[in-house]
């Protein structure tokens, strides 16, 4: 059984704070945790009010269980509202005289079984959301009449799988329809409509909407004719096949437009005139004429998905207010004017993203990035460091090969610099001695191979830099020393690939919280890592630690230790600090996958000796598998076997009896449960 301990003194101290502050604190807690706090009288009323802030009425409730393991608690609870049965909600309202502010309904039963009380709840709510589906055995018309005739006004209403077209009056500001059709889509007063039409009817379908409609999202495979209401602010039409006919006047209020029209070749075919459009997303595979886009002189954000790169779109100064331009899955082919055209971008462009693009026989030596550009993200295209503008703040590059010359420097304003090519070469590491003061994140991660010249002196890190990653550069002990990490303020250090042999914990800063040293050729460890008093996560994955000596860890802060694929024989050398009297009730999760030679006896002894130990292992031994079925502190799954290793030796401690299946004493658990 999992037990969550709540410190009463902590909440009695919280009760001394102003009520609005208490409400803010409670609002940040997982909703499943809140009922436990009803037993603290000083804050009970505020707890009830927080519970009733946002409730989800369902027939059966199932609370998320917390865990007393590290990095756990209620971390697996993602519910942002409180699940409750209607009868319990009514009891709570009657007892506390507090009505829910926001109600979410998934069942029609409230309208059927408790109409008067239920309507009273809804009347006092500030926000009502309903999600209803056709229920077998009930006539759809009767089902709809239950809430249509109740005069309840929904903020949002969703209907699922109603077999026949239905008629809706003005009962919701926002409506979503899945596999449900309406007799009439011109609903007065509705502001937002989302519907997904799945029909075998090949006839052209016509849709007309109320002039009150401001947001329209349509997904369909059918041939459709849509008359667009004049007050639209947002429009999304997702059409996978067949023709589409849009009828509209000038849409002066339209600011957001997403179109997936696979068959159009020119935007002008849409007939859309929106002079104040701010964001445009196009997924139109056959689009080749982009002249129709030049009408959007106030466009701020433009995104293309899976179409040809608009070679001449930005010629002649079009889209002068564009601030963000992204291409996803786009292609460009070598033409005579490619280089000249691609050198032109709108002058106010601040974000440029070109990802997963296919560029054939094209060289971008003539690229000139706008002076205002702050963020550059490119993927899978030829790239040279000369493309980097001096005003860039965020740089992300993936390319087959990147080579940086001796003169390379990261520009002074850069805050995030991330390189993830297949192959990465630095002809000189002199740039490491001239890192910009604004640098926060530095990632140099070649997937295949990285080459760099040797460091010649200690690196001096920017004070605000908190996150670095170096992978596949084969870093040795000498380089690790010259990196001078100890004199940094780094919180995240990720180094993969090297030949260090013995790891010295004194090489790392006390500020580090997440330290990953994967595949570093480490065979020996320092006697102690206790000086890293802020360390929460430590990964030594892929090192050869079979003969490692006992090592002290900062168990007061450490929550997770990754020992995957370390050819381990014993777990116990990493646990000596957890047995010390000064470390009261430490908790540590160890992940040790792909260690098929680890001793089962050592694992069982460790679990019995240290109640705060949590292990995640491969399912390689039947004894451990049986224990894991009854233990909250042992996970065995995956069934991984490495043919290079011999079968793990088992012990004779497991006799198949109920009492020996768990590392915890059964009687002790039963006693604790009675005490609760």
Task: Please outline the helices and strands.
Layout: H1 8-14, H2 19-27, H3 44-51, E1 54-57, E2 82-84, H4 86-96, E3 102-105, H5 109-113, H6 115-123, E4 127-133, H7 140-148, E5 156-160, E6 174-178, E7 192-197, E8 205-208, E9 215-220, E10 224-227, E11 234-239, E12 244-247, E13 256-260, E14 279-282, E15 301-305, E16 324-328, E17 331-333, H8 338-342, E18 351-355, E19 358-360, E20 375-379, E21 394-398, E22 401-404, E23 416-419, E24 423-426, E25 441-444, E26 449-452, E27 467-476, H9 477-482, E28 492-499, E29 501-503, E30 514-518, E31 522-525, E32 537-539, E33 560-562, E34 588-591, H10 600-609, E35 613-618, H11 622-630, E36 634-637, H12 666-675
Parallel strand pairs: 1-2, 1-3, 3-4, 4-5, 5-6, 6-7, 7-9, 8-10, 9-11, 10-12, 11-13, 13-14, 14-15, 15-16, 16-18, 17-19, 18-20, 20-21, 21-23, 22-24, 23-25, 24-26, 25-27, 27-28, 28-30, 29-31, 30-32, 32-33, 33-34, 34-35, 35-36
Helix pairs in contact: 2-3
Report what the structure shows.
The structure is a single chain. The protein has a 26-stranded parallel β-sheet. A 3-stranded parallel β-sheet has the order 8-10-12, with no helix packed on it. Strands 22-24-26 form a 3-stranded parallel β-sheet, with no helix packed on it. The longest helix is centred in the first third of the chain and has 11 residues. With 676 residues, it is an alpha/beta fold. Helix 2 crosses helix 3. It is globular. It has a domain of 93 residues. Strand 27, helix 9 and strand 28 form a beta-alpha-beta unit. It starts with 7 loop residues before the first helix and ends with a helix.
